[in-house]
Amino acid sequence: MNKIKCECGHVNPEGTVLCEACGKPVEGNQHIDGNDQRKLLNMRYDGSARRSQTYNKSIIDKIWNFFSSVKVGVWLIVLALAASAIGTIFPQEQYIPADAPSRDPSVFYEAQYGTLGQIYYQLGFHNLYESWWYMLLIALIGVSLVICSIDRFVPLYKALKMQKPKRHTTFLKRQRLFSETEHVTADEKDKLVSGLKKQRYKVREENGHVLAEKGRFSRWGPYVNHIGLIIVLIAALLRMTPFMYLDEYVWVREGEQTVIPGTEGEYYIKNKKFILETYDKNDERFKEAIEMQGNVAKNYQTNAVIYKEKGETVAGADPELEKVTEDKIRMNHPLKFAGYTLYQAGYQQNEFKSMTFKIHKTDDPDEASLGSFTIDLTEPKDEYQLDNGFSVDVTQYYPDYELEDEEPASKTNFPRNPAFVLTVHPPGNEEPEMSFVGIGKNVDATGENDYKLGIEDFETRYASGLTVRRDYTLPLFIIGAVIFMIGVIQGMYWQHRRIWLHPTKEGIMVAGHTNKNWFGLKKDIEQVIADTNVNMVDDQLDTD
Amino acid sequence: MNIEKAKAAKKNKKRNRLIFRTIVLALLLVAVIYALVSNFNKDKTDVSEGTQAPDFKLQQINENNELETVRLSDYEGKGVMLNFWGTWCKPCEKEMPYMQSLYPEYKKKGVEIIAVNLDTTKFVVEKFINKYDLTFPVPYDSNKEVRESYHVEPLPTTFFINPNGEIVEIVEGGLTLDKIEGYLQQIMPEQ
Amino acid sequence: MDSLIDVSSTMLYTAFILYLIATFFFGATIRDKNKSSTKGAGVSGKIGITITIIGFLAQIVYFITRWMASGHAPVSNLFEFMTFFGMALVFAFIILYFIYKLNILGLFALPVAMIVIAYASMFPTEIAPLVPSLQSNWLYIHVTTVSLGEAILSISFVAGLIYLIRQIDQSVRSKRTTWLEIVLLSLFIFVGFSIISTSFNLSGYSAEFEYSFNGETVTTDYHLPPIAGPNEGELLTGDRMNPLFDAPAWMKGVDAARKFNTVIWSVLTGLVLYGLARLILRKRVGAAIQPFLRKAKPDMLDEISYRAVAIGFPVFTLGGLIFAAIWAQLAWDRFWGWDPKEVWALVTWLFYAAFLHLRLSRGWHGEKSAWLAVGGFAIIMFNLIAVNLVLAGLHSYA
């Protein structure tokens, strides 16, 4: 079996179901589209020879044919759908709530959801979307997209190009919309043609046989949207290379300056101020809602300055900095510079910035101040001189005080619960006295101190959390999405409508086909045959 | 039509089709493998055992040590134990005396101990150094830039760097005296 | 200010009533004995669609006045969003009505829209301020497009449902008749939810509970008598009934037990309503409706169902995936984050992609396709309701 020559003279490639030129069913191939079982012809891909339907010899061909099947494609889609849904049963690892008793996944799922949670975790579903098998599934959909498209595009293109106005009567009779009229005048035939043209059909005539066509380009919609999807998948693939895609997180405290991670030490950020605004409780519009749910945040904002290191960069060397930009970073309004983007992502207000202490006599019930001093918690000094002759030595400092095994210690290096061992040198030559002072703590080392220290005031500061992104794949995603949308609209909002007129001895046969929207095609035909006695087409689907 | 010719043409076409399909499938296979491999390697960084240790230059804050600044590249030809630590970190505190006890001996043998500090205030670091009488250089990474360039997550993390500037070993977590000594011997320059 | 809000609520109420009246007119078209119904709309149909359009305009006025009152597009909490979805449903119906002029579609589409609006109004209706992440024009664009897309896809369900009621053999009980009854029952449950919430709200029922949540003691206010109380919760309000049982311990979310209690009530009420319907009709609900649908042409219904997917799918893709990604990129610094709501948008999209591919093959037209349309609607509703209330992620509006 090689090429198939049709009685109309056209030579079709192997595996053709309906002759490319005249549409006559090719004998021996009707099982391929199931035409042997039914009255109506299957018009998928116009009965062209899909490559996969023919050869099945080598392993390459077998793999090819496997992926070329739409059925396989649909199965892959269904599997991806089911897998995606499973991933939402319990939160993914990244969405374990911050306030959970334990955020360790090996503990969290069992503690929170019992045995089911345990199984979920052990199957790796807590990280489902990054699992190798989920990625493989998506990749296989990509493979299926490529092969299905290649396999169908060329034959369909050829079939639509080869088609002739003159169609075989079997082909016409086995279309869904068909009618035959015994007597039709030449005048009426002309009316039909002009009617078709008026409806913006492209009309081709050959010896009185007419092929009227509209919206053929919509047939390419699926291939266009598949190209869009393939571009999106390629973009996703590129995103895995660190050069193309960078994702870092940085905490920067008010007044602090730090290197921006991921920039190879090239850029620095300074947090000038962090602003947290809430809605006004007295705002008439929102009064009720705020009463119900409490304060609602209105704005998170970091006033930031970006610096660039000048000259050669050696990590840590006192950088010579050049200001790049100064701007506000707000939610929904990220800051962009030199290909990087900074997003407002979080904040913390649990750090102290400075503390002010006062000295008073231990036995003074009014605790009248004898003098005060302020310790900058980022840079405590060894000694503080007070105006009235007192001086205070900072003997020990615990930024985040806790008692561990009866020993004072610091839990972290951030001033979240600052505590000091302070030595007070009163004026004159009185004995120095030691005190331990922190939030809610004031311990006298000997129990015989004449002077006591009290916290007079303190300042807190915010730490702002920012995500750092550089994503060179974004344009590719956008291109892919745009192409996909063009393709899907092209394929869905236009339809390929075809009407054939086939003159018989004295009359005419009318047949119509469309890939979608039969209702619209019928309306077209109704208008075309108005004012003639040509029979309206029957919808043969009803009788099928 | 010549039957021989037709057969040859058919054969030719078949071969071309096979080549085309093979190429397309091979490309797709490469893409899929690339996706899986890069997903697998996602968490690996460019600073790992066997790579060159990134250079850095920091201010030195241990008053018991005469250096003003520390630059890693100045130690070429010497082994370097590069330790990242903070005063609040308990296992760091535990291994400091071990490091101090080995320091004088190994300095003579051509191995330097450098302990990069990550505290937010120098004040506590000075108190700490005096408490343990540390003499090795303590560079102060105020911007966390060096920590960032070495991708240090948990503290302490220690890099053992050989005389060629290559990272031989990365240890996350505290070390015992024996272990430190073992690693130091690994990076000792040959006499 | 207050007057604007009043106008707004009145207009929503008006729209609801008009939809109800329009439904009756569409219902009357069944009795149109003349043949006009197969071609053109018929008188009742014309009146029906006119009232629908007036109702739709009233709802637009609701939308605009509420926007003016709050200063942001009213699509930012569950009430506003579901109401908008109901409006989009009506809009989608109007579009498809003008393409196909099928009256019977109105008889089913409008009640679905009404159920959605009634359901929406059970959620807090106060105008709430926008948290920073929602302060973006992309939010409006995303939400309006996605609900329009979902609404058009829902019309596919409406047509599919009519197809199923029309076509399924009701002479014997079968798996298909049972499933159809389940689909209808679920509509009864939504109605049940609205009825039971309204009645207890009107009576001002309230029972307060105290329970422990993440180690903290919190209180929750039940507006329906507690069948299921919070796990190890304590009733604070006197002279209220004690819960019949505690919600299972694994229901951990905020107010999970209260939501669970509401679900129980809705299902019970829905079952009662359904039971009553069965008692009165003395046959399956599907079987009772079937005779009224004789005039509807099955292949026409099948085509509308398919066409609605063809029209809705691109809109949904644009709103639910592309615009959503743009907004997520700006607000959350990533365009895709595997948040449950995003995943379910993807599931919806994959489902309809599969649907469109299956339509290419023979054997997937007609009934199978109608079942798929029902399945697609179930996924959409799951995403709109269950994901917000059960799998709460970033989108947890309510």
Plain-language structure description:
The complex is a heterotrimer of chains A (544), B (191) and C (398). Chain A is an alpha+beta fold and 544 residues long. Chain A has four domains: 50-160; 165-215 and 495-539, TATA-Binding Protein (2-Layer Sandwich); 245-349 and 464-471, no CATH class; 354-455, no CATH class. Chain A has helices at 59-67, 70-86, 105-122, 132-162, 169-173, 186-198, 221-238, 287-293, 474-493, 518-529; strands at residues 4-5, 11-12, 177-181, 202-206, 209-214, 245-253, 257-259, 267-278, 297-309, 321-330, 335-337, 340-361, 371-376, 383-385, 391-398, 401-404, 407-410, 419-425, 433-438, 441-444, 451-471, 497-503, 508-514, 538-539. Chain A is elongated. Chain B has two domains: 1-44; 57-186, Glutaredoxin, CATH 3.40.30.10. Chain B has helices spanning 3-40, 90-108, 122-132, 145-149, 177-186; strands at residues 57-60, 69-71, 79-85, 111-117, 139-140, 157-161, 167-172. Chain B has a four-stranded mixed beta sheet, with helices on one face. Chain C folds into two domains: 2-170 and 283-389, no CATH class; 171-282, no CATH class. In chain C, the strands form two sheets. A three-stranded antiparallel beta sheet of chain C has the order 2-1-4, with no helix packed on it. In chain C, strands 3-5 form a two-stranded parallel sheet. At the A-B interface, helix 1, helix 4, strand 7 and strand 15 of A face helix 1, strand 1, helix 3 and helix 4 of B.
